[in-house]
Amino acid sequence: MKVKKKLHSLSGGQAVVKYIKTEKVRNIFGLIGSATMEIFDSLYDCKDINFIDVRDERTGTHIADGYARASGQAGIMIAGQNGPGATNLTTGIAQAYSAFSPVITIAGAVSNEHKGKDSFQEIDQQSLFEPITKKTFTIKKTNKIPSILNQSFKIALTPKCGPVHINLPRDILSKKESFKEFSKHNIKMNIKINEKIIKQSIDKILSTKKNVIIVGAGIKNNGNYKDVVKLAKLINTPIVSSAGHGDAIPFDEKLYMGQMGPRGNEIASKLVKEAETILALGTRLGFNSTFYSYENINKKAFIIQVDIDKKSLGRYFPIEIGICNDASKIAKILYEKILLKKEIKKINDWTKSAIHQRKIYIQKRDHEANLESQPIKPSGLFKILRDVIPNNSAVTLDAGTLCLQATDAINYYKPPCFFTPLDFGLVGFSFACGLGVKIARPDSPVISLMGDGGFGMTISELSTAVEHKINTITIVMNNGSWGAEKAYQRDFFKERYIGSDIKSPNFAKISELYGAKGFKVNRIAEFGDALKTSLNQDNPCVIDVSVDPNELYSFRRDSFQHKSVKKKKSKF
Fold first, then answer.
1. Facing residues of 105 across strands?
2. 165: pLDDT strictly greater than 80
3. Three-state SS at 19
């Protein structure tokens, strides 16, 4: 005799919360609004979910993004209002899309009977979000809520991960329906291994003297770097990381050379420019790593590329071997099969030289750090960060000239622990992202670096940080300018400055008014003390550091090749 499944009568809003609870979601971020009041009212009675109210939908999505990347779970952000509440999400969703971050956003929408009638706060939200998500849904029937949410979690969390957006009309949320028990999403991935291609890859790797392994987000995001390190040691090959993923391999691994490319260090970058065989694991070899230019990668190299996304294979550079699979899984298979061959490659001059040059580079970086100059030099600030922050720290960055200089200037030990805007290049990301990272990893110190412009954009989330006791440390590298743009005006537009200089209030004092702890630092000797004190605080901390306004660097020089202005030399 079959037992009939019990039916539950729920409103659409209640069904949303009940399904999210089924996914064992612990934290939801949101900004309340009348269009989704049924969801928020249902959350009131849900003691298993911690609701964190934010001050802006954009920054709330960055918080969800940081939470998703640091936890490996979906980051949920609810925009309570259709129209402006939804449009405010777009920057955060576009950021998550570029970073392959599993963010799920939910927004209210106009009732079906009002659709297409120029009703209050009506826009075409379906068309708005489709280009910047893996999938956008508009739910048209209340009884479809569980199945669409199930699909949303599956799509967002299936590699390559990415954001999903859901529009929920008011009448769908208020209407009641009878529901059976909800079931959690299930991801099944069993991609077959082509043994012939694996053998070809091994033969090439073992027959080449100048190999390099490039690791990207496909290795970093799941923290499965150990098999890559074992493989590198077995074949005595240096490892470098793609742009924005300097934490993919722990800093203290002997064969790890750091971040490659135009924004990386000279040792890692040179290896990729000279390598005869490149094993690219979980990286697209994308723009920030290569500028799509053979100036940053050896044109004659034999490239073996492994990526979970078939579209990424050979997309930017011709490859000899492409393997569509999980990069860490392939690294493990390569290690095991080479080990069975008992053909361990002896360390050669190529690898010896890389290790030696890396050691000199690290020593030089510390030796040349300016700890004396007034105003404060970035090199001195980064040196203190390296010396003071614990190894289990997580670091978030903005875009901008000072943050880009920081990408390979800080040491990372616990992958994944370094979170940046990546290819979206967003200013105003770091502080909010750090809040999400801290919620995901409450026991890890979280350090967020950004410029004065970016922090000014997002300072309102200090209310969120104080209210919910999210004790991150935000370091505002205050140079009184939009630094990257001012560098371009200096180097390519004859110092015709317009709009690049900005004035900000004392961020330390403002932070105190919010209820956070604030420090104003004008001398490098003060910075170490402020940082150490911040690491022992139970409140959010903001350190407003006056940084030399002349320490600017034009990263995108390729964009201004048409300009004939004489380029000034940079110490960076």
1. 77, 165
2. yes
3. helix
